[in-house]
Amino acid sequence: MTASPEDTGLLPVLRDFAAAGFTADLMATEGGVFCAVCRSVSAPEDLLVHWVRRLEGASDPADMLAVVGATCRGCGSDGTLVLGFGPDADPAEADVLGALALPPASGAVGRAPGETPL
């Protein structure tokens, strides 16, 4: 059996990313992305994005999240950034998600940590 976005909870996904080395906390702000390691705020397009894992709430499809595994260019720390998307998304998170420089699918290096094929 394969897991779909609505079958997976946030905590197991965060554990999978941490096990893959993405341990720093990255957070969306109105000014960009805050890195808890170097305490800098960077423009979303300056993050080096490695993976994006999409999640949807099983009980409420409006609970849509993107878990991003990225590197802070300021200090080189690998971390996770959790962003809401969809109709109920926080405007700052939606702005950050829309501005990320996502790698094209053709350039993907594989599935995100913990992701299974559909």
How would you describe this protein?
The protein is α+β, with helices and mostly antiparallel strands. Helices cover 16% and strands 31% of the residues. It is built from 2 helices and 6 strands. It has a 6-stranded mixed beta sheet. Strand 1 and strand 2 form a beta hairpin. The longest helix has 10 residues, at 10-19. The radius of gyration is 14 Å and the shape is globular. It starts with 9 loop residues before the first helix and ends in a 19-residue tail after the last helix.
Strand content: 25-35%
Strand arrangement across the biggest beta sheet: 3-2-1-6-5-4
Average predicted local confidence, pLDDT: 84
Instruction: Figure out the total of helices.
Output: 2
Task: Give the uncertain stretches in residue-range form.
Answer: 1-6
Could you tell me the radius of gyration in angstroms?
14 Å
In one word, what is the shape? Answer: globular
Largest sheet: 6 strands, mixed
SSE order, as H and E?
HEEEEEEH
How would you classify the helix and strand content by structural class?
Answer: alpha+beta
What's the short story on this structure?
This protein has 118 residues and is α+β, with helices and mostly antiparallel strands. It has two helices and six strands; from the N terminus they run αββββββα.
